[in-house]
Design goal:
Shape: globular
Strand content: under 5%
Helix content: over 70%
Radius of gyration: 23 Å
C-alpha cells in the first residue's frame, strides 16, 4: 500500500519501522518467559541468563522452522487453555486461602484501590481516563490492524465471513481472559501482603506464587506450560512475520527465483533469531519497568510513524515528496522523546502516558503535509 500510494522510500520506511516495532515487542514478551525460567530452572543450577536466552530463542527458531503458520495457530488453543485454567485455579486457591466466598471475593476485588478504572481527577496523571482510553484505541489500530503478524490470523481464515467471526470471537474471548487476569492481579497482591511476600519487580509475583509451595503442583505446571506455549506462539509468529517482511520488503527478494528466495529466507530466519536473542539480553540489562509497560512504551515510539503514514494515505489525496519521508519518520519519535522528557517542566506537571503514540502519528502526519507536492510538474 505504501509503495503504491507514496513510493519506494515510504515502502522501505514502513517495512523498517514494522521490523523495529515487531522485534522489540516480541523480544520484550519473550523476556518474561526467560525471566520465569531463570527464577525456576537456571538460577537454582547457577546457570547464566545468557544461556537461558540462547536456549529459549533456539527452541523458538526450531519451533517456527519445523511448524510454520499452522502450528502457530493451533498452539494458540493450547496456550489459552493452559493459561486460563491456571488463572482460574489460582483465583480459586487464593480465595480459599483468604476464606472468601465467591461474592466475598468479588466485593474484595471491587473494594481494592487496584480495581479503580476511571481516573478523572488529575489530567496531569498518567492514569487519567481519556489518555488511557484514546491511547488504547489507537494502540489497537496500530498493533493489530497495521501488523502483518496479527492480520495473518484473519487472512488464514477460509473466507471473509470467517475472518469477521474470528475478529468478533477474539474480542469477546480476550475481554473475559483479560478480566480474569486483572481479578487475579488484585488477589495476588492481597495474598502477597497477607503472606508478607515481596518481589523486586511486579513481573516476578505471579511466577513466584504459582510455582511456589503455596498451591498444588498442577497450578504451577499449567502456568509454566501456558506461559511457555504462549510465548513460543507469540515469539514464533513474530519471528515468521519478521523473516517474511525482512526478506521481501527490505532485501527485495520478490521476483527472484524460488530457490534463491528459500536460501535467503533461511539465512534471514537465523539472523532474526540472533537479533531477538541480543535484544532480550540488552533489555534485561536496561529493564527498570514492567514488561507490559515496556511493550506499550516501545509501541508508542515505533508504531507512530506507521500509523501516521497510513492515516495520511487514507484521509489525504495529495502526493508527497517520497524521498524525504524517512526523515519525517525518524524526526517524529525524536520529537516525542523530547516532549516526554520535558512535559512536566513545559506543561505544568503534565505526564505523557501511551497517548504519546497519537502525538507521534500526528507529527508524522504534519510532516507529510509539509511534503505535499505543490504543482503538477512535481508529479
Amino acid at each position: 500500500y505504501l509503495e503504491n500510494r507514496f513510493g519506494m522510500s515510504s515502502y522501505r520506511t514502513g517495512a523498517w519501522f514494522f521490523f523495529i516495532s515487531k522485534m522489540l515487542g516480541a523480544a520484550v514478551r519473550l523476556f518474561l518467559v526467560c525471566l520465569t525460567l531463570q527464577l525456576l530452572v537456571f538460577e537454582p543450577f547457577g546457570l547464566p541468563f545468557l544461556l537461558n536466552v540462547a536456549i529459549t530463542v533456539a527452541l523458538v527458531w526450531l519451533y517456527t522452522f519445523q511448524g510454520g503458520v499452522k502450528s502457530l495457530i493451533w498452539t494458540d488453543s493450547l496456550k489459552t487453555f493452559c493459561l486460563v485454567v491456571s488463572v482460574v485455579l489460582c483465583i480459586c486457591y487464593i480465595a480459599a486461602d483468604l476464606n472468601l466466598s465467591f461474592t466475598g471475593m468479588i466485593s474484595t476485588i471491587a473494594d481494592s484501590d487496584m480495581s479503580r478504572i476511571f481516573f478523572f481527577d488529575d489530567v496531569n496523571s498518567k492514569q487519567y481516563f481519556f489518555k488511557q482510553f484514546l491511547a488504547g484505541v489507537f494502540t489497537m489500530i496500530a498493533m493489530t490492524g497495521l501488523d502483518q503478524d496479527m492480520m495473518q490470523r484473519n487472512l488464514s481464515c477460509k473466507n471473509f465471513k470467517d475472518s469477521q467471526k474470528n475478529m468478533i470471537t477474539s474480542v469477546i474471548s480476550q475481554f473475559f481472559v483479560i478480566l480474569l487476569f486483572l481479578m487475579l492481579g488484585v488477589l495476588l497482591y492481597i495474598f502477597a501482603a497477607n503472606r508478607q511476600i515481596t518481589v523486586a519487580k511486579s513481573d516476578e509475583l505471579f511466577p513466584l506464587i504459582a510455582t511456589g509451595d503455596y498451591f498444588p503442583a498442577v497450578v504451577g505446571i499449567l502456568f509454566i506450560i501456558g506461559l511457555i506455549s504462549s510465548a513460543y506462539s507469540a515469539a514464533g509468529s513474530a519471528l515468521t512475520a519478521l523473516t517474511t517482511s525482512f526478506t521481501v520488503d527490505i532485501l527485495g527478494a520478490k521476483g527472484k527465483p524460488e530457490d534463491t528466495v528459500v536460501k535467503i529466507r533461511k539465512k534471514v530466519h537465523v539472523g532474526m533469531a540472533v537479533v531477538m536473542g541480543i535484544t532480550i539480553f540488552v533489555f534485561n540489562l536496561l529493564n527498570n519497568t514492567s514488561v507490559i509497560d515496556a511493550v506499550y512504551i516501545l509501541a508508542s515510539y515505533s508504531y507512530g510513524p506507521i500509523l501516521g503514514l497510513f492515516a495520511f494515505g487514507i484521509f489525504m489525496k495529495q502526493q508527497v515528496r517520497d524521498k524525504y519521508i524517512p526523515l519525517v519518520a525518524i524526526a517524529s519519535p525524536a520529537l516525542c522523546f523530547i516532549l516526554q522528557k520535558n512535559s512536566e517542566a513545559w506543561f505544568g506537571g503534565y505526564q505523557f502516558s501511551y497517548e504519546l503514540l497519537i502525538f507521534n502519528a500526528l507529527f508524522t502526519f504534519i510532516g507529510l503535509c509539509l511534503l505535499i507536492k505543490k504543482n503538477k510538474k512535481e508529479h
